[in-house]
Amino acid sequence: MFNRVLSESYVFLKGLFRYKGTLFWVIIFPILFYILMVAIWGNANTSPVRIGVVDLDEGQDNASASIGSILVRALNESGVFKVKIYDSEATLRNALKNGAVDTGIVIPEGFTRNITSMHTARVKAYYMEGQYSGYYRGSIEGFLSSFSDRLRSRAINESLNYALSMVPPDEASFIVEWFRYIENPVNASFEGYAPEMLATKGGIRAFYAIGMIGVEVLFIGLSIGATMIIEARKEGTLSIILSSPMSNWEMLASETVASLLAVALSSISILAVSLPLGAKYNMPPSVAATAAVLIAVGAVFTIGLGLILSLLAKSEETAMAIVNGIAFPVMFTGGIVIPDFVLPSYLKAFANVYPLSRVLKAVRQMLIYNHTPLQAVSYAAPAIAATVIVYALGALVFNRLVSKAVEE
Amino acid sequence: MECIVFRLLFLYSILWKTEFHTVLNEAAANNIRGWLEGVLVIVEAVDLVKIYRNGVKAVDGVSFEAGPGITMLMGPNGSGKTTTLSMVAGALKPTSGSVYIGGLDVWGREWRRARSLVGFAPQNMPFKERLNALENLVWHGLIKGMSIRESKRRGRELLEVFGMEDHAGFMVGKLSGGLRRRLSIAAALLGDPDVLVLDEPTSGLDPAARRSLWRRLRSLAGEKCVVASTHIASDAEENAGKVLVFHKGRIVAEGSPEELVEKYSPGSVIVVEGRITGVPEVDEASVVKSSGERVVYMARDPDTVLPRIIEAMVRAGSRVERVEVRKPGLGEVYLRLTGVRLEGA
Fold it and tell me: Which chain A residues are within 8 Å of B125, Cβ to Cβ?
């Protein structure tokens, strides 16, 4: 039995380096795709907001610098913005339309004069509409609000000093408290927080490496599952297998083991490339072994799903069209490549229940977030149960298709 | 068959009823069991029927037995040979009927043992196109339960037997039809099966290559039971110990080539070639075929009839250039039985 189960793995290994197509999809493609993902999303720092500034503030005759120019310097030093100066509001608006900047502000004439003469100074802000409008508007709004707060504090401090000189000393504390309230009715404290995986470069790169393993599991499992019988019929070897002492279950086991071998080689290649690219894993032997088992569970699930899908396909081309039609959307919407916290809520729900996404999340929990194997397996338990059911159904479909083939 | 059953019963009574096995050492017991299985190895098809999903009845009540030596299923394309062989090999399930290999039902509980006794070479010579010749043999060995090392060793031996040792590393797609055919038979021989099921093993080969392959098969057959199909009458005639004549999914006659000829086509074939201007009727001879340059007569007593044929033809104005008298073959038998002319007849 052992030798029969090894038969497809033998074919796979012998063909791996001989056929460029197999080598490409199992080893080269995941490496290239991983490098691409790292190049695009692999850094912890977000890129700064590009802001266009039109500074029409002439300042005051006796001042060394206008408040407008102080504001521009503050923008530059914030670390959040990348400042680009424009000479007029019209050119700034053009730059926004062309996508040259994400936000913009116009500091009008008399800005300094208004502030120093206790008049409200106006600033006009622009932000780019679209997917990130909230982010852009929030950035500029936050900055201007903070700048305004600082000016308010200064004005209040001056007013407070004057008021304190006018009231008896026993009422001073009340006056101070009152002025502080006016200055800051709500004292919010802010602390930067990013999801743990986004916190470090190593974490991000490990996240995408596991995502890429998920992509390989998805495509290898589905395509082998969906084309298992079709391919054997096409090349005619099914009649040889049927006339041999190999049972249907051994045939299925043989294909499954070959798929797991392909997934293993692919995973090892991705991990091997991710390490020099800076991915950081928490991988003691127990975690590594559990991760391998969980990835195998994901692969078995997709093979089972592929087998069920093979009911719908009569030719290899149809089978591959179905596989691609399912795998591509799932790759992006199932929390495999794209982190689930950036997905809309309905896709988050899908990523939470889709067994492959769940086992990958369990693997990430161990390798990136330092969860114990027990915690990860507990999290993946529903996915493991679903895998048993889906693979069993797939096996029944496989058995039915073989029985059908033997009757035709 | 009765004889075999009797011998089996006798052996079982010795082995089990008298507890003979307890006194024999392991090796001796294995030898006897081996002999027992050797006796058992025979193909028996019982009332095979195959109706495809499209309603076509490809095989209609075929029954036969095949023992050691070459048993040939003879008939033109579409006569049910391939379907029958696929059912015998276990690659196609009959609609009804049974196949026994060495007494074991190919579709029954002991299917695995039954199929381990069979080597099958389908007509379309399926291979793993990603593997070379030797690797394909290893794959065949693996699915038969052999180890990689054993499959490789036996594969090399078989390549040598078939004169293909220099092609071991060739990808199967690069092999010629003849070499693929040989490789296909070598693959069937892996695991040393007692029954070889070969569907049109010489199909697509030129006459010299065909003869050479049959020579190899005859020498390999030995004690094995070879069940093969052919649409070439001369192949069956020269190589088969037993011929099953197939027509429209049925066996219309069976026996050794000699028996079939004797039964269905007695007498001799007289072929007259030359410039034929007329085909005269001659007593005790019948015209089988005639054209402008060739007339074929059948006659029971050629020595008496031949001079009369020549004389009648010359009198009719024909110029006789060549005369051939030969025994009829299976082609004539097939023609007589079915009205269909086979290749090589």
Answer: 236
Residue A237 and residue A168 share a domain: no
pTM exceeds 0.95 = no
**What is the distance between the alpha carbons of residues B311 and B316, in angstroms, rounded to a whole number?**
9
Mean pLDDT of chain B: 83
Q: Does B25 have pLDDT greater than 80? A: no
Residues of B in contact with A407 (CB under 8 A): 53, 92-93
Chain B interface mutation, best of A8, A26, A239, highest count of B Cβ atoms under 10 Å: A239
Residue A320, CA distances (Å) to A13, A26, A169, B195 in order:
22, 16, 86, 39
pLDDT at B344 over 70: no
A240–B91 CB contact, under 8 Å: yes
Do A172 and A234 fall into the same domain? Answer: no
| Contacting residues of A for B90, CB less than 8 Å apart | 242-243
User: Tell me, what's the ipTM?
Assistant: 0.75
- Residue B213: inside a domain: yes
Report phi then psi at A171, rounded to 5: -100, 0
Taking CA atoms, A164 is separated from A118, A149, A160, B332, B336, in Å, by 20, 22, 6, 133, 134
Query: Is A272 a residue whose pLDDT tops 70?
Result: yes
Residue B262 tokens, joined? 């004797």
Query: In this complex, is the C-beta atom of B81 within 8 Å of any C-beta atom belonging to chain A?
Result: no
pLDDT in tens, B218-277: 887 777 899 999 988 888 888 888 999 999 999 988 999 888 888 887 788 888 888 888
In a domain, B336, yes or no: no
Q: Are the CB atoms for A95 and A52 separated by under 8 Å?
A: yes
Q: What pLDDT digit, counting tens, does each position of A121-152 carry?
A: 889 999 888 767 788 888 888 888 888 888 88
CB contact under 8 A, B142 and A237: no
Segments forming the whole domain that contains residue A29? 2-43+199-407
Nearest to A236 among B122, B141, B142 (CB): B122
CA A79 vs CA A11, A42, A50, A139, A148: distances in Å: 56, 20, 11, 11, 18
